[in-house]
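From the methods appendix. Each design record in this collection lists the tokenized structure first, followed by the designed amino acid sequence. Records were kept in a plain field format so they could be parsed without special tools. The example shown here is representative of the layout used throughout.

RECORD:
FOLD TOKENS (539 positions):
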């Protein structure tokens, strides 16, 4: 694989050089952006996925999916959500007290309607807050489409049967996060109802469950990622047909015409839907010399191969040493002058490691995981600075999967808003960007001054020591003793942003801040700013 990549790079360079030697090419207009939406965006715009208080955010998509969430989505897709919310039945599952009032009504409705398939987990319980697996959610989606367990499929056969109905994108995910739910739900919206000619999206639009004016979102052409033991991960269309690139093409320009174009039909879609692993900005549209439009990926025009007859065929791979599948990797390498090289995902979002983790084991749970969402992908390829064998997968305590680099679990930082942000670098002296080096360690950091560890309780709506003097390089661990949530936020600086801000801490939760630079730092609790303030003097 490594040799082939090097060979492709040489041929791409050779193709570019031939252009200056009189090779005829198609003159392309300036490439135009393509209307690309991720599964999460489609699900959110249709109102199928509604998120938490802040909507369908990256943080929400990273959260574990619970049984009650899956049940609500099932009812929403069946057009029964409002009926369930308004249900006044008194009988309920034994563990209904673990959820809020609206979810209690939903659980009571499901108990009163066992024909819907949500009969609980035994001993009169529903287990609303436990996680959901791919097998369980595909069962939900199959029944949403009108198929019945023990009539159309058995529970043990769910994954295989779902694939036969076009549902397979999250089949290997194990326990699910909300991002998986977005992908699988959008898959189902494209599928046809049992025995009918209409898709689930069209049916829901007729039932006014989703906005009919937006239903077309579910009909966008889709580009998926396939995986092969020899070829690695590569791009395919929504039917599984392989997409190729031509090494004689140049950036944003096609050289394939006449008989070439007959053997290698162009790929074009004006609206494209992708999973969250792909970067929509990588897709654009060019206008060919013949006036036809063609989709490009990272500047390279996309094609089919006429001899590929079915999904999974890759007969065009290596033809004449100029045609190749479009390989894909969710991890690449970026660099910044002060940090050097570090790992990012396919959208350029920074990946981090946590020094409190141990090899192949995460120590980041609860509030930590909220602030440092986990990263997982099954599509990682070797590159100039990367070896696919350096990446692995662990299964976390909740059953979800997480990708590792040389044994260290990988994370995002919730405050990184865009590609290139590295706001998580050095946080609390335990979070770092990852240098793609032989050591697999975090990038070299300047050594902080030696300091001490201090503790600060938050109790009775007050900081235990409203004013504290510490040495540079020291840390303060804040512990919330109150039943309500508190946090610690510095007063704004000249640019209007705080120097530090902890997450909201529940009772018994802690957060550690380290102060390397001398100075005076005033701070407050955001929810109770009028009564909770303090000062830290660093010498």
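DESIGN:
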């Amino acid at each position: 694989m490594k040799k082939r990549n090097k060979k492709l790079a040489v041929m791409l360079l050779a193709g570019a050089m031939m252009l200056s030697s009189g090779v005829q090419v198609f003159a392309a207009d300036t490439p135009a952006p393509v209307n690309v939406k991720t599964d999460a965006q489609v699900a959110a715009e249709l109102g199928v996925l509604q998120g938490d208080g802040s909507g369908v955010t990256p943080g929400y998509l990273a959260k574990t999916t619970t049984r009650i969430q899956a049940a609500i989505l099932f009812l929403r897709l069946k057009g029964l959500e409002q009926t369930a919310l308004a249900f006044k039945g008194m009988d309920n599952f034994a563990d209904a007290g673990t959820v809020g009032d609206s979810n209690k009504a939903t659980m009571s409705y499901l108990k009163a309607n066992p024909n819907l398939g949500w009969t609980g987990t035994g001993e009169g319980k529903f287990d609303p807050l436990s996680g959901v697996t791919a097998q369980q959610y595909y069962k939900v989606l199959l029944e949403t489409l009108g198929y019945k367990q023990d009539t159309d499929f058995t529970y043990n056969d769910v994954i295989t049967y779902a694939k036969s109905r076009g549902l397979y994108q999250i089949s290997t995910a194990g326990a699910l996060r909300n991002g998986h739910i977005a992908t699988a739900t959008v898959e189902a919206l494209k599928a046809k109802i049992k025995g009918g000619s209409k898709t689930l999206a069209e049916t829901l639009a007729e039932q006014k469950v989703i906005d009919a004016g937006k239903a077309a979102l579910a009909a966008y052409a889709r580009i998926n990622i396939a995986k092969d033991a020899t070829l690695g991960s590569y791009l395919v269309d929504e039917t599984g047909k392989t997409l190729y690139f031509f090494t004689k093409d140049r950036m944003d320009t096609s050289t394939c015409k006449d008989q070439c174009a007959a053997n290698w039909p162009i790929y074009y879609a004006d609206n494209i839907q992708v999973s969250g692993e792909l970067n929509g900005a990588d897709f654009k549209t060019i206008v060919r010399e013949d006036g036809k439009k063609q989709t490009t990926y990272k500047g390279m025009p996309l094609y089919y191969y006429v001899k590929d007859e079915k999904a999974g065929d890759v007969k065009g791979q290596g033809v004449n040493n100029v045609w190749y599948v479009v390989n894909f990797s969710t991890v690449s390498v970026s660099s910044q002058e002060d940090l050097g090289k570090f790992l990012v995902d396919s959208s350029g979002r920074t990946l981090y490691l946590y020094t409190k983790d141990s090899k192949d084991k995460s120590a980041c749970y609860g509030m930590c995981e909220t602030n440092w969402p986990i990263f997982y992908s099954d599509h990682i390829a070797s590159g100039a600075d990367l070896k696919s064998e350096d990446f692995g997968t662990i299964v976390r305590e909740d059953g979800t999967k997480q990708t590792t680099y040389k044994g260290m679990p990988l994370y995002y930082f919730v405050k990184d808003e865009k590609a290139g942000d590295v706001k998580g670098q050095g946080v609390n002296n335990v979070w770092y960007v990852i240098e793609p080096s032989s050591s697999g360690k975090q990038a070299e950091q300047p050594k902080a001054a030696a300091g001490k560890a201090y503790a600060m309780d938050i109790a009775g709506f007050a900081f235990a020591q409203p004013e504290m003097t510490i040495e540079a390089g020291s840390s303060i661990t804040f512990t919330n003793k109150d039943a309500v949530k508190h946090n610690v936020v510095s007063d704004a600086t000249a640019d209007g942003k705080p120097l530090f801000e902890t997450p909201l801490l529940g009772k018994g939760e802690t957060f550690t801040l380290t102060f390397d630079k001398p100075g005076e730092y005033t701070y407050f609790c955001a929810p109770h700013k009028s009564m909770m303030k303090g000062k830290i003097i660093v010498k």
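APPENDIX NOTE: Residues 2-19 form the longest helix (18 residues).
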